């Protein structure tokens, strides 16, 4: 079966995490991602992220750049700019994640490229977008979690502000960019006219405030941290400490609460008018939760999970990363990619959660992230450049030294 995006070519000026994360999903679905790396800057900065590094590469880079091609090209030189324009003529999109004022400086907006290719989509994922008072500021996940209100909601009440354990603004921003890019390419193919996509990590972080944001703006709700990661209104829905570890129990429907009282051996709680409904339990949270916590501490995680699974109550052990990666469900869902690398040997990384095909369908084999500039000559030859022209470009410095 052909992959669904095999007829899409994206020229990418991406770096670090958010941008490469977004385009990697498209690459796994078959899109050709031609990753332009600036030779004067040493390529994508992700290649040098410690602690696991090799020459011009790292396991961080391998995590975000599988199935792509890499060319070295300095588009600020006249020669490099001409090569870039030739690439734009053959592409569906130019994709970047740079500071908000950089796309204009580099000339990678639709206004700059429409004469080269009227159907080109210019997708820019920046920290703060290309408009607004912060548009010239650099934006990183940690900064956006602070500005977006996330850190005020994360952690235990009374503790220091906390970020999420993963760079979720970056990764969600990558998904936003991938969706926007595909939508814009569809529109350009339908209408014959391309466009800009002005996306930002700031917009992503703010939009993900979702229902607490709606509650706050509409009903003056004041979001606050909750003890043991409890849901702000559904009780019980939180982490509980058992005799030998932690588990999460989520009564997202009334029927789950009824079933939980049976598992706990406390059906009297279901009959107590203080705990009859979600609204009742939320009002009497401080009376109910201590009773539940005392009950959960009397048995092990495994002892609790078995009857809760049998009763179809949403629950899970709180695992470490190793436990998550070795779960039989992780392996059965084919979420681990295995590639060979000259320096690192076998690299095991995580595949995209994006899938197209029937349940259980085999995935297309994945390729390791490319060495810097590994595809330069091939891509240039596909554009019609001969050996003499490529040599001249290299001598001019447009492709880097050497």
Automatic annotation (TrEMBL):
The keyword Zinc-finger does not apply. It holds the Pfam family CoA_transf_3. Keywords: Transferase. InterPro entries: CoA-transferase_III_domain (IPR050483), CoA-Trfase_fam_III (IPR003673), CoA-Trfase_III_dom3_sf (IPR044855), CoA-Trfase_III_dom_1_sf (IPR023606). This is Crotonobetainyl-CoA:carnitine CoA-transferase CaiB-like acyl-CoA transferase. The lineage of its organism: Bacteria, Bacillati, Actinomycetota, Actinomycetes, Pseudonocardiales.
